[in-house]
């Protein structure tokens, strides 16, 4: 963090960006955007841009939680199922006549609860996070199916629901509500990582859990909290999702799952823990959103989109690996 | 001013004008080194002087920016460690490189597992070969044991066994003895001499003077990445060698002061490890007192320290400054006023992918935090003054800790605990991998802490260190304290005897057993 005066400032900034762990995603995002602006005139229009933001906002909320989890050196495979289960809870509450605000609260509490279950099993029962969340992936999905015998809950005609629908599709001034909402969440998530003891502990645990423990970090509590946060984002995402779609579906959207994890990894948050951040995740998410938008604009069948995001994930992590190797040879590592 | 001993043996490896830079540091500039067959060549110098970097260049792990490497007179481009190994150059690096989830035998023969017909692994031969190599080293360990279950010392010996099992012509030992106890070190040095006499060349990096004088015939000193001198041993005196290393006279090495012991600060009653590594043990410690714990690897001294530090679960009563301390919980330990520094730097102490500032601040999180928020401003100034106080050599606090030399990492690991000014310091091998100059700094740091009223327990495998700094010395043997000595009057042999035999040697040979606590 050199505070070199004037002339060096911009160059230093550029250098820092190029050396950052999300450099690849950022460059790809710029390249794809330039390409699309030239060949798809619609791409660069305001409505299309806002469309990209809106259609990815559920994924982005989940990706913020997933970033926390991955930084801590663990993985939550169950967040998609948790979102679905929370959405079903939300839908059923609405249909049962619960006032909107209470139902929203209910969905969020449901998400928190599911996160708590994961966190408790991982942190206090000391079961491998992989096993726990693979198990709950299936359990939460099953619960979502059971509660309404496997059928969707349409909330479109529920009195009071239209307020939420209008809200999530509405604007604050010129900006869509969802854009503002996502920016606020992003700032909170980034601020917590950087400025709180909890955030710093997350990096410490992800980097070396025993060193963190011996230096007085409350490893169990931090791990419990990180899964609760993952559950919280699932709850929030379910409200936005149902608000937009006007229906709660009991089936997990596999493509959403992939997009979320891909955004985190493409954004440079390392699977091995201890490194990364939400800025990278934002860039990763934008990149995937732009690519998907480009495919739609070019009239490519949506069936291809999964194949493409999957390939991009593998490719980008591979390229990240190459960059890692280059960097390791030039400096760091070993000793 | 180079004074190369007249040797007749063939030159095995000759490096000339080697330079190597990393972003922000010039690790080596124009270094020459000649290694002959059948010679033990000591490579020494302060922390960060470039010793590991030079040996990594020779072992094909780093490409030099400038300079040539000749092996058997022929210029070689070593692209990978495999290239070096193919030419008979094998290195044991400073940090362990074993696969923890594999067995001892698999680790020793990694990449060279014996195969029977159909490409099936020949497990029985693997085991037999492993036993043979281990026997040569005098290490008694089950070849089927998992490496992760072994102590650091045993792991280091497995690493050595692996190197020995290849047909090395040049063996590079990068501080291989720093995690070994006195006895294991002696065995290793004997082995080095044996192999040397068979014609192997050894490049030995160490901060320990006695080792240099025990086996090597020539020593090369680096300082700040430059070659200072190559001198014959033992013709060059120890003082001279140290002066070459640090560029000045060192003065009083241990800076031992007479500090009147104060009130009782630690009272341990029947402390025993849950895993049975040491039996119920009693111990007391006064303010201002430095207690040294000696003993062989596996004697329980290290686990005793871990139990005091809350790193492992234990039973018994521990009172710190009159208040009982909960066991097995590092948070309770820290709150009670105990500062613990573990011996396994890589495994239990550093955050490898984080920078220096965060590695310091991790231990101060409670003090830097108000209402859950960390004061980054205070962190910055605290870290800056800690880097100064503990002499960490680095370009900036934002440097990744894993790019620092081993000794500089150790200064951070130690400094962040001492800076909390705990009532009791429990230091497990505090000077491991630290150069002579920095060691005196650490000893001064301990004297200062003792003077300010801390009680200090130092676990060390280096007897001279224990003797030099301790007011009182307790010796562990098979999980018990078998002897206690008064620091200033203790002699090395008596302590070594107690550590090996489990009894305090007595002037009259008729007394067979005496246990003191
Ligand atoms: N991979 C790397 N990236 C950046 N800097 C490095 C790297 N490896 C070493 N350095 C730097 O090069 C210098 C020499 O380091 P080196 O590890 O060779 O020292 P050393 O003599 O082995 O020290 P020690 O006795 O502490 O092991 C140090 O300043 C170190 O920080
Ligand atoms: Mg070194």
Description:
The complex is a heterodimer of chains A (335) and B (517). Chain A is an all-alpha fold. Chain A has one domain (24-334): ABC transporter involved in vitamin B12 uptake, BtuC (Orthogonal Bundle), CATH 1.10.3470. In chain A, 74% of the residues lie in helices and 2% in strands. Chain A has helices spanning 7-19, 23-39, 46-55, 57-71, 79-95, 100-123, 129-147, 161-169, 177-195, 197-207, 209-214, 219-245, 254-266, 278-297, 303-330, and strands at 153-154, 171-172, 175-176, 247-248. In chain A, the strands form 2 sheets. Chain A has a two-stranded antiparallel sheet. In chain A, strands 2-3 form a two-stranded antiparallel ribbon. In chain A, helix 2 packs parallel to helix 14, helix 4 crosses helix 13 and helix 13 (254-266) packs across helix 14 (278-297). Chain A is globular. Chain B is of the alpha/beta class and 517 residues long. Chain B folds into 2 domains: 11-246, 3-Layer(aba) Sandwich (Rossmann fold), CATH 3.40.50.300; 264-501, Rossmann fold, CATH 3.40.50. In chain B, 33% of the residues lie in helices and 25% in strands. Chain B contains 18 helices and 22 strands. Chain B has helices at 51-58, 81-86, 104-108, 123-137, 152-165, 182-197, 209-215, 238-246, 301-308, 330-336, 345-349, 356-361, 365-368, 376-389, 406-418, 436-451, 463-469, 492-501, and strands at 11-22, 25-36, 40-45, 66-71, 74-76, 89-92, 170-174, 201-205, 218-223, 226-232, 264-273, 281-286, 290-295, 314-320, 323-324, 338-341, 369-370, 373-374, 424-428, 455-459, 472-477, 480-486. In chain B, a hairpin with a 2-residue loop joins strand 9 and strand 10 (226-232). In chain B, helix 4 packs across helix 5 (152-165). Chain B is globular and about 70 Å long. Mean pLDDT of chain B is 88; it is low at 1-6 and 508-517. The chains are: A mainly alpha (335), B alpha/beta (517). The A-B interface holds A 1-2, 195-198, 200-201, 203-204, 207-208, 210-218, 270, 274-275, 329-335 and B 22-23, 52, 56, 61, 63, 93-95, 309-311, 330-331, 334, 340, 342, 347-354, 358, 361-363, 365-366, 368-369, 372-374, 376, 396, 398, 400, 402-406, 409, 416. Magnesium ion binds next to helix 1 of chain B.
């Amino acid at each position: 963090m050199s505070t070199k005066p004037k002339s060096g400032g911009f160059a230093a900034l550029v250098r820092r960006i190029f050396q950052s762990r999300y450099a690849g995603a950022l460059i790809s995002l710029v390249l794809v955007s330039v390409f699309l602006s030239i060949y798809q005139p619609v791409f660069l229009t305001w409505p299309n841009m806002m469309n990209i933001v809106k259609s990815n906002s559920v994924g982005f909320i989940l990706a913020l939680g997933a970033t926390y989890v991955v930084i801590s050196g663990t993985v939550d495979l169950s967040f998609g199922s948790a979102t679905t289960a929370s959405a079903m809870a939300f839908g059923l509450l609405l249909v049962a006549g619960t006032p909107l605000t209470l139902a929203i609260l209910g969905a969020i509490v449901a998400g928190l609860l599911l996160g708590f279950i994961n966190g408790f099993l991982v942190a206090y029962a000391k079961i491998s996070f992989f096993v726990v969340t693979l198990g709950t992936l299936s359990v939460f999905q099953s619960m979502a199916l059971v509660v309404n015998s496997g059928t969707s809950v349409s909330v479109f005609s529920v009195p009071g629901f239209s307020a939420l629908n209008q809200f999530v599709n509405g604007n604050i001034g010129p900006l869509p509500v969802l854009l503002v909402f996502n920016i606020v969440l992003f700032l909170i998530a980034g601020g917590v990582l950087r400025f709180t003891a909890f955030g710093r502990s997350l990096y410490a645990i992800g980097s070396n859990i025993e060193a963190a423990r011996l230096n007085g970090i409350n490893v169990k509590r931090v791990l419990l909290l990180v899964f609760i946060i993952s559950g919280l984002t699932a709850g929030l995402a379910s409200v936005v999702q149902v608000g937009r779609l006007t229906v709660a579906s009991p089936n997990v959207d596999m493509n959403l799952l992939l997009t979320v994890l891909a955004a985190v990894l493409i954004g440079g948050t390392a699977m091995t823990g201890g490194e990364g951040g939400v800025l990278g995740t934002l860039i990763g998410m934008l990149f995937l959103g732009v690519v998907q938008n480009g495919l739609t604009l070019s009239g490519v069948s949506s069936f291809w989109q999964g194949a493409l995001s999957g390939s991009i994930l593998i490719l980008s992590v591979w390229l990240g690996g190459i960059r890692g190797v280059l960097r390791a040879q030039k400096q760091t590592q070993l000793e | 001013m180079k004074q190369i001993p007249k040797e007749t043996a063939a030159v095995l490896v000759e490096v000339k004008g080697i330079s190597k830079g990393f972003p922000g540091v010039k690790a080596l500039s124009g270094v020459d080194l000649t290694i002959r067959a059948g010679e033990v060549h000591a490579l020494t110098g302060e922390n960060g002087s470039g010793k590991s970097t030079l040996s990594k260049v020779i072992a094909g792990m780093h490409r030099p920016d400038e300079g040539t490497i000749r092996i058997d007179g022929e210029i070689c481009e070593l692209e990978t460690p495999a290239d070096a190994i193919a030419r008979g150059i094998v290195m044991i690096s400073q940090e362990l490189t074993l696969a923890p989830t594999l067995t001892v035998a698999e680790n020793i023969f990694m990449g060279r597992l014996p195969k029977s017909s159909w490409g099936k692994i020949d497990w029985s031969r693997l085991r037999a070969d492993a036993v043979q190599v281990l026997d040569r080293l005098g290490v008694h360990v089950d070849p089927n044991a998992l490496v992760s279950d072994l102590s650091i010392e045993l792991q280091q010996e497995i690493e050595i066994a692996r190197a020995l099992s290849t047909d090395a012509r040049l063996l590079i030992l990068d501080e291989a003895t720093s995690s070994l106890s006195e006895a294991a070190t002696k065995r290793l040095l004997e082995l080095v001499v044996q192999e040397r006499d068979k014609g192997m060349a050894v490049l030995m990096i160490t901060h320990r003077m006695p080792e240099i004088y025990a086996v090597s015939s020539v020593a090369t000193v680096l300082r700040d990445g430059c070659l200072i001198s190559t001198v014959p041993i033992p013709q060059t005196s120890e003082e001279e060698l140290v002066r070459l290393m640090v560029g000045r006279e060192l003065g009083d090495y241990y800076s031992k002061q007479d500090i009147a012991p104060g009130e009782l600060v630690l009272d341990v009653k029947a402390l025993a490890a849950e895993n049975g590594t040491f039996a119920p043990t009693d111990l007391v410690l006064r303010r201002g007192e430095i207690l040294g714990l000696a003993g062989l690897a596996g004697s329980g001294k290290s686990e005793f320290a871990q139990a005091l530090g809350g790193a492992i679960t234990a039973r018994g009563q521990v009172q710190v400054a009159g208040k009982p301390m909960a066991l097995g919980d590092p948070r309770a330990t820290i709150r009670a006023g105990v500062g613990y520094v573990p011996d396994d730097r890589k495994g239990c102490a550093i955050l490898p992918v984080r920078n220096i500032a965060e590695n310091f601040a991790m231990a101060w999180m409670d003090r830097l935090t108000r209402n859950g928020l960390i004061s980054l401003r205070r962190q910055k100034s605290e870290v800056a003054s800690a880097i100064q106080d503990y002499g960490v050599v680095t370009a900036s606090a934002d440097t990744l800790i894993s790019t620092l030399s081993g000794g500089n990492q150790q200064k951070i690991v130690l400094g962040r605990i001492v800076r909390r000014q705990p009532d009791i310091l429990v230091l497990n091998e505090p000077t491991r991998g630290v150069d002579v100059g920095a060691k005196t700094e650490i000893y001064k740091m301990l004297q200062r802490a003792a003077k300010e009223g801390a009680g200090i327990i130092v676990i060390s495998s280096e007897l001279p260190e224990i003797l030099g700094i301790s007011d009182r010395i307790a010796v562990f043997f098979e999980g018990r304290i078998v002897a206690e000595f008064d620091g200033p009057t203790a002699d090395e042999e008596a302590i070594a005897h107690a550590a090996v035999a489990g009894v305090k040697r007595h002037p009259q040979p008729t007394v067979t057993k005496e246990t003191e606590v």
